[in-house]
Design goal:
It contains three helices and twelve strands. It is α+β, with helices and mostly antiparallel strands. It has an eight-stranded mixed β-sheet with strand order 1-2-4-11-8-7-6-9, covered by helices on one side. Strands 3-12 form a two-stranded antiparallel sheet. It has a two-stranded antiparallel sheet with strand order 5-10. GO terms for molecular function: metalloendopeptidase activity. This is Peptidase M23.
Length: about 220
Amino acid sequence: MNWNELDCFPVMGEALNSENTLRLDFSAKNQALEKVDLSNTEAFDQFVFSQLERSGKRFGIGGYLENRAIYRRSNVFATDAEDFRNIHLGVDVWCEAGAPIFSPLEGRIHSFQDNAGFGDYGPTLILEHSSQDKVFYSLYGHLTRTDLKSWELGKIVKKGAIIAHVGPFPENGDWPPHLHFQLMWDMEGKSGDYPGVCSQREVAHYSANCPDPNLILGFQD
């Protein structure tokens, strides 16, 4: 697929660039994370948004295939050591709760649900798109519960339409407010949910099925 031909509408309503967006590092290499109580969402929230405030940016971004240290905060990711899920399959856009989220392309609502639980997605929406004879899916996680009331399976969504809002904690899975945005070629039989993090052992499979979300987000720094 030639992603450059899609002419996507900005997912956050405006282009993400170095003027309004700060690249954030949540990898295991970031020693500053060792000083943060990641199990305390308020402390984690302060860590994220103090960086944005100091930089004068509205958004923070990053995470595709990042080996992250932040998943030790939740049992959602706790498995055997060789299968511990810490490789991020989407891109996170960190911003204030309530920020509107827009459909980058026309599509239909494939599925949705509230993936409740500490460290999970919270309210989640998945759209199905068809372009250039290809079908692919976009996932939006950590949304508001009020958004759930406006979704309807199979409903056509126009390009540029507001589809959701960034949720506050704890209803967003108890994370500092952000959008988890992810692309998938194949839903693999799943509905309302799809792994947003995988283990090192699974990287080859999931990276092939989940292309870089920046192909649509278009962030440039």
